[in-house]
Amino acid sequence: MELVSITTADAMRLQGMFRPSLERPRVSSAKGSIDAAVLIHGLAGNFYSSRLLLHCAETLGSLGVSVVLVNTRGHDMINTLSWAGRAQSVGAAFENVDHCRYDLNAWADFLVERGYGNVMFFGHSLGAIKSLYATALEPHRKVAAIVGLSPTRLSYSRMIDLPSGELFRQTMQRCQMLLAADRGTEPIHVQFPVSTWMTPQCYLDKYGAEEKFNWLRFINQVTIPTLLLFGEKELAMDPAFAGVAADLEPLKRGWNPYTIETIAAADHFYTAQYEAVDEAVTRWLVSE
């Protein structure tokens, strides 16, 4: 393993861990003969703390796929990074998800510079959304496939109609009031859809009525082979996945580049279901 760093197109410095595979590549040509992958953490995660992604890195290595586990600028809740030569507070509490395009494409560039020819984005939760978003809006010429584990749906219209929708409305109103009072960049504690810290500006951008990051609205712009995995429990019980099961059905019909699978008895973090994830990912990658 090697600790590495990159600088994005907008001058953000990020760190990660590179692990080359010594195995013979086994990924099929139908998936672009992938030889390297960028593994992307979820909300407030980082390159070293996700047991799920660390496990997936082992699986990919056994298939001959080298990996880099990465930080995005949304890593951890609040942190300080060098941005254009100045220290700035960043992290999940301050994150503008749109900027993931710079982060992911810079990490793909890193792998290309190391000599790899066909790269895959492999993200969990918000990392899966970022994989789809970056590819839809600013596709990288060497990214040939995506694996997205449990991309949550950031949908205002769905969340407002949930039983907990009143709490969501109250949070949106509070954020709008703070933004109007010129306090939009001060982190506050929010409880919906998850308990976390976030600036009002960030909350409104991520969960607002424009639904900029509702991946079901832009997935048709993703034209490369894509595997989407979900946990049976999260689809049934997690408010962040309300209505997703039904809305996935059109993506399963007719020809398209998407493969969609549900892992039985799995929650959002695939607790005790890592082997099932291994099997699904391996089956998809090696099949023609």
3D structure, described in words:
It is a single chain. Helix 1 runs parallel beside helix 9 and helix 2 crosses helix 3. The mean pLDDT is 95. With 288 residues, the chain is α/β, with parallel strands linked by helices.
Sum up the structure in keywords:
alpha/beta, 288 residues, two-stranded antiparallel ribbon, eight-stranded mixed beta sheet, globular, 22% strand
Write down how many β-strands occur, each being a DSSP E stretch of 2 or more residues: 12
Please provide the ordered H/E string of secondary-structure elements: EEEHEEEHEHEHHEEHEHHEH
Based on secondary structure, the structural category is alpha/beta
Strand order of the largest sheet: 1-2-4-3-7-8-11-12
What form results from the Cα inertia axes? globular
Rg from alpha-carbon coordinates: 18 Å
Topology:
Layout: E1 2-7, E2 13-19, E3 36-40, H1 51-62, E4 66-70, E5 79-83, E6 86-90, H2 100-113, E7 119-124, H3 126-137, E8 143-149, H4 156-160, H5 165-180, E9 188-190, E10 196-198, H6 200-207, E11 226-231, H7 232-237, H8 244-248, E12 258-263, H9 274-286
Parallel strand pairs: 3-4, 3-7, 7-8, 8-11, 11-12
Antiparallel strand pairs: 1-2, 2-4, 5-6, 9-10
Helix pairs in contact: 1-9, 2-3, 5-6
